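S2.1 Query sequence (SalK)
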Amino acid sequence: MTSLPPRAGRRCHNALNPLHSTVYFSPDFTDELAQLGIEDARAAYFAGRGAAMGAVGPGTVTAAFYNFSHELVARHLPAVWDIASPEAVLEARLRAVDSTLRRLLGEEVIASKELAEAARLALRAAEACTRHARPLYAAHADLPVPEEPHLAYWHAATLLREHRGDGHLTALLSAGLDPLEALVSHTATGKGMAPRWILGTRGWRRADWEAAEGRLRVRGLLDAAGELTEDGVRLRAELEEHTDRIDLAPYEHLGAEEVERLTELARGLLTTAVASGAFPADLTGKG
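Output structure tokens follow.
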């Protein structure tokens, strides 16, 4: 039995993960990758997130990222590695993280003891992450930990994000949800990415989206109005609970008191970043 309060790990992840994601919405990231010659935003994302795995082909990225169209991924990989090496991309990404966090958080927060504490706690939690069946986590775990606290915090948030994310794919497979069914059902909760963002970044067409809605209706998970049925709500809850169970180790390792403290610190940092315009206003929702 865990000594953690229910969903404590999930709450901590939900505070950590968005700050990690800020870099992929940052003009600093696209500028850094463009300076390497990678000017397409989607190619930049595939390279930036996938570079830790090396010069991988489209199959690896489609498998590890789960919810992107393979056709879209293959349009950019492996060709992107002819433009810039994974090592160069990782260096550019870290430069983008540095400038993004400095802009969103401000130099006072960057130099604060609270951010250094958050980095220490997040890195300690990540000590208990495991590599098996977690390719994106395992690849990032092989990268060195940056020295500066704000970069170390981002690195630790990345490890914890990819560890939970890799585990979440296991839960999606167990629930029998394909990539688009996972996206459609998540958006239907009101917490997922808005359809216009999904269709604009994941390589799917509106007809693909509607077909996935149809499959979910046949299973009784979605109603005619595109809302989750009781079974759909139950399935999404079970997905998160399954993910919680297989992502428990980092937070048990940290302990209840320090998980609560890390969550508090992470929420404060995230609130500051969001107030500074870290994300588009229409990123989430059903519309």
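The mean pLDDT is 97. The CA atoms of residues 171 and 238 lie 9 Å apart.
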